[in-house]
């Protein structure tokens, strides 16, 4: 009996060792599949830079946002944004209308200053500076935008200005729209995103004009949560996109006349329920990778979607990607990947034949990227201009993964066979143990 007990206790350990060996063998078989190194993208030595321009004019005293003053809402949102700042982002704050309390418009319209300098942020100091603000004077938006451009300095990467205001410029000249166009024309890679706390048409038109001139976005803010979320998103976007300045591209409604794009990042505007088409040359053995993000810079109806399709020159779909939204997100994004057939294959020969690609030039053989949306503006919201979109295009050597499903299934069958064998062996061992223990019990 003693010998039986000792042997029975050792069996689970031996069984565990056996099953462990089987698991190692399965892992070794699966690891025989080719491994791919992580793809890396070049980074910039410059940090992302954001300057927040805050309206502190007298009208910010109005208490029409969830029962709180516009100023209190802006201050609370800024505190939350500062707490959530990415470590690598250089952040600063500029005010307008914060210091001059008098009635002299000439003096009041000079009232813009840097509240917190752009750089690595001491969160306590930045929040303390925000807490001292009290609604005071005039609204020199144009002058403040020029000051923000100086705050951000020059460089090779995109800088962002986030303007929060509750009214139009009360000090022009300079007209803020003209200032935005002037800054864009200087090639300073400056993007101005505008957020409006009031909802009159004149303010909306002016803020839209500023954003459009620099490739930025406009948002009509209704709640503190919306303001906080949008500013956080814009600060985060500075960290995501500052390394590459999007080039402007204008999509068309037909593939034959669409602009030809090389790998890079592109910006455009798409109207509600519109299709915009672009072309990308893809050679046999190459893989097309593309993604699109559409910013919802105004209130849109629920139940919308964004569709990105890759088609051939005849309009036959190759692959598609979709993103559906509920009306509560700020960006709708989707992407596609498609590998061109290898040279010499039947599909490659067909795609390069004169009947399918016209003259056979690289442009004629280009894959067509079609960006579509099902957006609709909410009542009272302007449909013009179109929503800003950002299109990222890359063409790389096709993945060395097997062309068809057979090889992938082969690796799957290996795993299945190993697991089946392990299961059978486990069942046999435990069955043998059970029979042995019953036999021993009967003998005793």
From TrEMBL:
Query: Among its keywords, does the record have Transmembrane?
Result: yes
Q: Which InterPro entries match?
A: CLCR, VWF_A, vWFA_dom_sf
Query: Which residue intervals make up region (Disordered)?
Result: 337-360
Ordered alphabetically, the record's keywords are: Membrane, Signal, Transmembrane, Transmembrane helix
Stretches assigned to the VWFA domain: 49-238
Q: Signal peptide span per the entry?
A: 1-37
State the name under which the record lists this protein.
Ca-activated chloride channel family protein
Which sequence ranges are marked TM in the entry? 413-434
Q: What is the lineage of its organism?
A: Bacteria, Bacillati, Actinomycetota, Actinomycetes, Kitasatosporales
What is the originating organism of this protein? Kitasatospora atroaurantiaca
Q: Which PANTHER family match?
A: CALCIUM-ACTIVATED CHLORIDE CHANNEL REGULATOR (PTHR10579), ZINC FINGER (C3HC4-TYPE RING FINGER) FAMILY PROTEIN (PTHR10579:SF43)
Q: Where is the composition biased (Low complexity)?
A: 339-360
Q: Which Pfam families match?
A: VWA_2
């Amino acid at each position: 009996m003693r010998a039986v007990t000792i042997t029975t206790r050792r069996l689970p350990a031996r069984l565990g060792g056996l099953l462990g060996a089987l698991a190692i063998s399965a892992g070794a078989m699966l690891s025989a599949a080719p491994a791919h190194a992580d793809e890396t993208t070049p980074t910039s030595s410059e940090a992302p830079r954001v300057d927040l321009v805050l309206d502190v004019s007298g009208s910010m005293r109005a208490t029409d946002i969830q029962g709180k003053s516009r100023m209190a809402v802006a201050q609370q949102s800024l505190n939350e944004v500062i707490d959530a700042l990415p470590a690598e982002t250089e952040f600063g704050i500029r005010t307008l209308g914060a210091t001059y309390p008098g009635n002299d418009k000439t003096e009041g319209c000079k009232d813009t200053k840097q509240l917190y300098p752009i750089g690595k942020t001491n969160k306590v100091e930045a929040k303390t500076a925000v807490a001292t603000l009290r609604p005071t004077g005039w609204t020199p938006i144009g002058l403040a935008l020029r000051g923000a451009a100086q705050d951000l300095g020059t460089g090779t990467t995109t800088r962002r200005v986030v303007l929060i205001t509750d009214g139009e410029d009360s000090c022009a000249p300079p007209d803020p729209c003209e200032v935005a166009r002037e800054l864009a024309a200087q090639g300073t890679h400056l993007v101005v995103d505008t957020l409006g706390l009031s909802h009159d048409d004149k303010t909306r038109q002016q803020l839209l004009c500023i954003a459009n001139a620099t490739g930025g976005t406009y948002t009509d803010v209704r709640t503190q949560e919306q303001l906080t979320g949008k500013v956080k998103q814009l600060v985060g976007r500075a960290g995501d996109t500052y390394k590459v300045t999007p080039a402007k591209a204008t999509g068309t409604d037909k593939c034959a006349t669409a602009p030809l794009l090389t790998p890079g990042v592109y910006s455009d505007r798409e109207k509600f329920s519109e299709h915009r088409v672009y072309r990308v040359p893809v050679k046999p053995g190459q893989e097309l990778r593309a993604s699109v993000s559409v910013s919802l810079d105004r209130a849109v109806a629920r139940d919308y979607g964004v569709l990105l399709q890759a088609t051939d020159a005849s309009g036959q779909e190759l692959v598609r990607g979709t993103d559906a939204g509920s009306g509560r997100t700020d960006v709708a994004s989707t992407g596609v990947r498609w590998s061109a057939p290898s040279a010499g294959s039947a599909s490659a020969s067909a795609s390069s034949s004169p009947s399918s690609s016209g003259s056979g030039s690289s442009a004629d053989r280009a894959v067509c990227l079609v960006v579509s949306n099902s957006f609709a503006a909410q009542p009272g919201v302007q449909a013009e201009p179109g929503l800003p979109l950002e299109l990222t295009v890359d063409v790389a050597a096709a993945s060395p993964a097997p062309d068809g499903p057979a090889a992938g299934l082969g690796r799957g069958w290996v795993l299945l066979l190993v697991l089946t064998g392990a299961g059978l062996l486990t069942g046999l061992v435990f069955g043998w143990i059970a029979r042995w223990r019953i036999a021993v019990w009967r003998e005793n």
